[in-house]
Write a structure and sequence with these properties.
Two copies of one chain form a homodimer. By secondary structure, chain A is an alpha/beta fold. Chain A has eight helices and six strands; from the N terminus they run H-E-H-E-H-E-H-H-E-H-H-E-H-E. In chain A, helix 5 packs parallel to helix 7. The termini of chain A are far apart. Chains A, B: Belongs to the Cob(I)alamin adenosyltransferase family.
Chain lengths: 209, 209
């Protein structure tokens, strides 16, 4: 057999040499990245994970003792896990504001939806202006843009003019406005490959809320 | 002006009627989804949010008092926010096991990488077999498949044969094997639209770890 065997010492040495070279290249690359900056982060697309990864970043901030805040624009009336966990365990580090009262087809009242979105945005502005708050998650705000309840251009102008340089602002929801994607520092599109709703499985605790 | 005005009572009534219809249709659709099932969930793709949304779901489980567990296959040596938060606050509800010792180019030792991946998988099997554990996050396990440290077919066969029906298993990492995507219930591909590393910004606490 002439095939290389992973357990042969010469193969291990070759692997180590290759990895040492890769590490050196990677270290050079990472050394060039020295900037620190408060980011505008967008999670969009039809797939799952937009809110849960925003919530995951909020938990990372809490772990690092970085004060942070959440404004929920749509799911306000729901008893979600994230809401329960943040309000019962971490209210000292993370403010949690639920402004929406559910999806538009739940409230069936456009004026009330618009008022809730506007109240959410006023609260968000107050939180973003406070430089002691290091991350503000605007959960499902893109839905408020899509329904015309908030003006994306106005929100973007505020972020560009008034966001403190080290504050991260995370905006989630499908259908993020193009101008927001253009202006953001970090944009991820969650693409749906397969979803269990299609197989008749309902929303389940831990997974969806 | 013949343009409809959002504040006119007739427009409000029209909106309410439209939304009532939408709600009825949606309720019928959601009523058809009665199934409950432990899911095989895959987060893959080059974009951000694979681990953080897995971590977000773990926090949802904790909020619902559902016992859960994390096995980290790659980032083991890192002091991440998720590790710190779970081990200091929630060790009663969530086991946290770090088996990897960093990326392959950090260890530069293939035999050690393989041994760590195999130890991680043994621990994962033990956790998945325990039906009291409702969600097991196998963080970055797809990387272990990509490097050939673990056999995806073997892992998949185990999940199909031994995963208790109500247990959710979440597998993250770019480059998920095709067979795993085929077999999974919920698959999201995180697509990278824009990343601040490209603009010279380094990994920052709260955002990346």
């Amino acid at each position: 057999m002439t095939e290389p065997d992973a357990t042969l010492p010469e193969d291990e040495a070759r692997h180590a040499a290759k990895m040492a070279k890769k590490k050196a290249a990677r270290d050079r690359m990472m050394d060039a990245k020295t900037g620190e900056k408060g980011l505008i982060i967008v999670h969009t697309g039809p797939g799952k994970g937009k809110s849960s990864s925003g919530f995951g970043m909020i938990m990372r901030c809490i772990a690092h003792q970085m004060p942070c805040a959440v404004v929920q624009f749509i799911k306000g009336a729901w008893d979600t896990g994230e809401r329960r966990l943040l309000t019962t365990h971490f209210s000292d580090l993370c403010q949690f504001h639920s402004m929406g009262e559910g999806f538009t087809w739940e409230t069936q009242d456009k004026a009330r939806d618009i008022a809730a979105a506007e109240a959410g945005w006023r609260k968000a502005q107050e939180l973003i202006r406070d430089p002691s708050i290091r991350m503000v998650l605007l959960d499902e705000i893109n839905i408020a843009f899509r329904y015309g309840y908030l003006d994306a251009a106005e929100v973007l102008a505020f972020l560009q003019a008034e966001k403190p340089p080290m504050t991260h602002v995370v905006l989630t929801g499908r259908g993020a406005p193009e101008a927001l994607v253009e202006a953001a520092d970090l944009v991820t599109e969650m693409t749906q490959v397969k979803h269990p709703f299609r197989a008749g499985i309902k929303a389940q605790p831990g997974v969806e809320f």
